[in-house]
Every structure is written in C-alpha cells, then in structure tokens.
Amino acid sequence: MSFQLFDGAITVHTDTTPLALDEDTRTLYNRAITDPSSLTDAERRIITHRPPPEEEDALCQAACGQSMSELVAKAIHNGDALTYNEARLITAGVVRNQAGRLLTERARLSAADRDLTHRAAAAAMTEEMKAARTSAQAVQYRWNMVRIAAAEALSDDDIRNIRYAMRVPWQEHVLSFPEGTVCGLVLFYADVPEWPVFKAQIETAVFHGLHYKALLMNEAAIAKFTLHRVAVADTSVGALPSRFQTMRDNSEIPTGLRSDCFLYADEEALRSREEPRSYVWLCEPEETAEPLKVDIKHIAPTLFARLTQRDLAGEAKREPYRHTSELGLLHQAARHSRNAEAEPDGIWPPPSRYM
User: Fold this and answer.
1) Among 265, 301, 83, 323, CA closest to 183
2) Where is the segment annotated Disordered (predicted)?
3) pLDDT greater than 90 at residue 246
4) What global pTM score does this model have?
C-alpha cells in the first residue's frame, strides 16, 4: 500500500502483505500460555523479543549506563527515580526501532495470531519485568501529561524554536560542570503584589520548555537549571548592571550561572503578564546594546542554549543558527518578531527561520 504526503512530494510505501505464525512459533506460544513455568530463559526472550542477556546488557549500558538487570532493579525499588529514557528502555526494549517494527508486523497478522502473540508475551514475561514495566509506564504517563500540557501552551513557532535549541549541545556542556554546580541565570525582580503571579507564569513557562521533548532532555540537566531570583528595590536598567557586577565581584552568584548577563522584570515586564507573549529583559553589563525583551516561554531551553553557545568552540558557537549569539545579533533577529496584529514587537525569539 502507498500513500502520498505534501502534495505528492513524498510517497510512503507500506507492506500490508498478510503474515502468519509458523507452527513451531504457534506451538511455543501455546505452551507459554498453558504452562509458562516450563519456559527457559531463552524461550521467554524469544517470545518477548528480548536479546540474549549479554547483548541486552551491552545495549542497555550504552543507552543509559546501566545493565538491564540493574535498570529493572531500579524500576522495582525506586521507580519514581527513572528517567524518561530509562522507562522507554524497559517498555520498548533496547533494540533500536524494534517496538515500531513489531507493531507493524503484528498489524499484518490475523486477529487470532495477533491475540495469541499478545497472550504469549504476557505469559512469558517474568514477574520482575512486569513490576518494572508498571513503574516505567507510570513515569512515561507523567512525562506524556507534561508534554501534552506544554504542547497546549506552545505555538508552532515556539515548538520549532525549542526543537532548534535542542540541537545545541548545551546539556552536555552543563553536565560537564563540577558536581554540585548549577546552570542558569540571575533574575532580578521587585517584590511587588504583581510579582507572585508573574513568577508562577515564568516557572510554568520554563517547565514547559524543558519538558516538551522528553527523549531529547537529560533530567540531570533539567535539575541543574536555575533562575536565581534576587529581590531589588530598583529594577531600572541604570541600577541593575552595577548590582550584578557587585554580586559577581563578591562571589554572590552561585557557581555555574551565567556571569556575562542577567534577566530582570521591571514594571513594563510585569504588565506583559496579561499579554500573549509575556517577557522579561536580558541585560549584559559589558555590552553597549540595550536590554532585549525575551519571551518567558523561551528562557529555557532556547535562550539558555544560545547563551551557552558563547562558551563552545568552532561551528558549535553558531549551528544550527545563521548567526552567533551576541546581544546585538539577538536584537537583529528580534526585529522580525511580530504580534498577533503583525506589528513589530521586538520580543525575542522570532520564528526560527529568522534566527
């Protein structure tokens, strides 16, 4: 069967030729259902499509740094600590793309053979693996609920910008920091009645940005990301750079946070909490360019990835973008940003095609 996408630009061919279980497989599956205790470990692995132990452990080790037996033990005894990737290895297996291939093959079986396949797999699964899968599925469910909430809050342009940012090796960079250090930015704010509502908006926006692409996120990197909030009496751009420099000189900024720039929320930013694109300001004391409006949905990962590129070498300082991330160039990109009425709003980031 074939079907076309994008007005015929792409043709997808799908094999729908019926498949049937051979007699040896059908016999094994029936024995698994009627007498599961008679199965050897090798037979259980055949039925549940798991590689031999040595191969499975090697693939699992390469994917998450643990053997499958260690991962199963973690899922049973500390399931809430599973990462999304670890949960996926338990539910989908360690063989790349196997889950999708098996689903396609089973769709080509008769209803009777498909039912037999599912019943045999359930019967052949060990109690330990069943318990591990239950924990893993709970982790995947939580991530999926977060992803759905993020998708509802993000526009198509937002999603494209996040996907671009995830192509920057910012996670690998921050995970190379010494243990116990954080990453992120200082955020200055005024402790006024409007602040708690805006603070909650910012926290939700950052959470959505860091959890939209579960497979691409390292939870250790998420745990490191911090907005170090500092209450100040004066949020004017005239006062904050010197305050930031004093904090930096006195080692008051937690190790790992950006020391070249900071965020702040002044009265104008607070008023933006009622607008479709709420923003904070990005300021760089050593730069002559004026502060930049940054959409709170893109503090992380988009802005932080771009700032991290300053610390990288070679093409990594720019790719996958057209330009590097100096403040003046971020302003240049923001000129392409438009509000719902197609009027320039100067809020960074613009759609990814202008980055």
Assistant:
1) 301
2) 333-355
3) yes
4) 0.83
